[in-house]
Amino acid sequence: MHTFLEETIQYLTKKHGDLSQLTIILPSKRAGGFLLNYLKKQALSTSFAPKIISIETFIESVSDLQIIDPTALLFKSYETYLKLDSIPEKESFDTYSTWAATLLGDFNEIDRYLLDTHLFFNYLNDIQDLNHWYLRDDKTPLIEKYLADISIHTPQELFDILERADTLLENGTYSVADSSPVVFLLHGDEARILFKAQYENNKSVVDLAAKLSAFNVVNIKVCDIWLQKNNLYSSELQPFVGIVGNAIAETERLVTTESYKYF
Questions:
Q1: How far is residue 199's CA from residue 194's CA, in Å, rounded to a whole number?
Q2: How far from chain centre, in Å, is Cα 64?
Q3: Which domains, ranges and CATH numbers included, belong to the chain?
Q4: Apex CA 227: angle with CA 225 and CA 230, to 5°?
């Protein structure tokens, strides 16, 4: 059974004979590599290969526009990110780069398929509304397990979620005896304020986290992989903070297999 690329070569050879005069446009450079391999296998004599380019290279040539290098795009996007007034506390470039490449790739896919951005982001917002299934008076076992939704990894974000948990404790919505603690799996700069050396600069946040941990309202853990990556040690953390091997993998496990919902 022949592959699509093999059948394409056979068709072009039958129709044109000499392929060296052709320009073949494929969806990606990777597909071009496979096509060249098939050409070599089927070649009966020495010949010149056709010109093989990706669709992006073709568009670049006919539009007279140059596609920006991914690394340069990352730096330019960070410059724009720093100018955003809606995000008061900016992340370092090291932290930003861990998730920005994925975001830029998503933006590229939106442009590639000419999606309606208004409808697209409204749809994403609706998904987040479903994920943020908050505590309520008529709790059921299905929605009693909660995972802190840490997305931008800033101390302020951590403090805001802790304050929400504290409000539930104070108004009686959260039952110390019957409810499970909200799990915090930290693997970004927000975890730095929970180190003993940072206590003087972050007393309000740390004291609140300690109080909620003592009442079993929250269960805070820091990613061991993140600690090692940043040359930090678990012994330097506040005593109420635990350790999790891989925070990202544990988050996935809690959500998919333990029915945790984002808080």
A1: 7
A2: 33
A3: 4-63 (no CATH), 70-129 (no CATH), 133-262 (3.40.1260.10)
A4: 110
